[in-house]
Specification:
Blueprint: E1 3-7, H1 10-13, H2 20-25, E2 28-32, H3 41-44, E3 53-56, H4 63-68, E4 74-77, H5 87-92, E5 96-98, H6 105-120, H7 123-131, E6 147-151, H8 155-163, E7 170-174, H9 181-186, E8 189-191, H10 194-200, E9 203-206, H11 220-225, E10 231-234, H12 243-251, E11 257-260, E12 280-282, H13 291-308
Parallel strand pairs: 1-2, 1-3, 3-4, 4-5, 6-7, 6-9, 7-8, 9-10, 10-11, 11-12
Helix pairs in contact: 6-8
Length: 313
């Protein structure tokens, strides 16, 4: 039986040649759309009705797109987050959705600590001074005895806390869900309200999913609660932080700095005010990106597609 699939994932398209023999083995015909970083609704609407399966990244599989996907049996998401897919409509239309939960948790958690060390020890500033032939000193801050606050204690949040145990910091956590007491005890972490975490933390790390409750979770009021010498790290999703409020906070020294791997609009626009600020690190949604984790997700995404198409159990 011939099946037709669409590869709209930019990541998957980069390595598609490695899987062509496997697709041929199961008589799967492929079409591709290669747009970095993602494919919008208008590109998908005219073509989606042709396909039995899809491999996507953060492409816009909206309700409108899914209602036109009359043949679609499976969406295999490259990566973990599903916020670009209308999962409710997919469920109503009996479209299976697969992803690779937890695949990037270790990679992202270590990226968080990289950002923390770069910010607190001012490594980018020192590097730029030396390259500019200025042999000057920039005073940093130690971590021992300081407080880290982690909002969102899922796979990534837990690993952020675990990886930081050697820095001898106090740990506060916040989540809409109750956190396992054994975990809290193991890492000597205290579950508190969001406002308490913001007021008491020296470093705040956002590890939440993007949903109705987390949209603009951090905005003007939240920045006013934070310590003036605190740092914000966002490796979750861009819209979790109100970007206009963040620019104001960084520009007016309401906080000391920020490490940002995600933005409200990606790629970050050329005229973004964040580009002009020296007290933040800007990263290209790259925290996931280690060879080992990416290779696993490539393989798992293809296997998920084949499973969803009924090629094997």
């Amino acid at each position: 039986m011939n099946r037709k699939v669409l590869i709209s994932s930019y990541h998957m398209n980069q390595v598609l040649e490695d899987y062509i023999d496997l697709f041929n083995q199961y008589n799967i015909e492929m079409d591709t759309i290669i747009i970095n970083p993602s494919v919008n609704e208008s590109k998908l609407l005219p073509i989606i009705s042709k396909y039995d399966g899809v491999i996507c990244s953060d492409d816009e599989f909206t309700a409108n797109v899914l209602r036109k996907a009359t043949k679609l049996k499976v969406i295999s998401k490259w990566g973990t987050g599903l916020d670009s897919i209308d999962t409710e409509v997919a469920k109503k239309n009996d479209i299976k959705i697969y992803n690779s939960p937890g695949a990037f948790s270790e990679s992202v958690s270590l990226y968080v600590w990289g950002m923390i060390l770069v910010l607190t020890r001012k490594l980018l500033l020192i590097d730029s001074m030396v390259r500019g032939n200025t042999w000057s000193k920039a005073e940093g801050r130690t971590l021992a005895g300081k407080t880290i606050g982690v909002i969102g204690v899922g796979n990534i949040g837990k690993l952020v806390i675990g990886a930081g145990i050697g820095f001898q910091m106090k740990t506060l956590v916040n989540d809409v869900k109750k956190i396992n007491k054994t975990f809290l005890k193991k890492f000597n972490a205290r579950q508190v309200s969001k406002s308490t975490l913001l007021k008491e933390s020296d470093i705040i790390v956002l590890c939440v999913d993007l949903n109705q409750t987390s949209y603009h979770l951090i905005s003007n009021n939240e920045f006013k609660m934070m310590k003036k010498d605190s740092y914000l790290i966002n490796v979750s999703r861009g819209p979790v932080v109100d970007e206009d409020a963040l620019v104001l906070a960084l520009s007016n020294d309401l906080i000391a700095g920020a490490g940002l791997d995600v933005f409200e609009q990606e790629p970050l626009s050329g005229d973004s005010k964040l580009r002009k600020l020296k007290n933040c690190i800007l990263s290209s949604h790259n925290a996931y990106n280690t060879y080992e984790a990416v290779k696993y997700v490539h393989d798992n995404t293809v296997n998920n597609l084949l499973k969803g198409l009924g090629c094997f159990n």
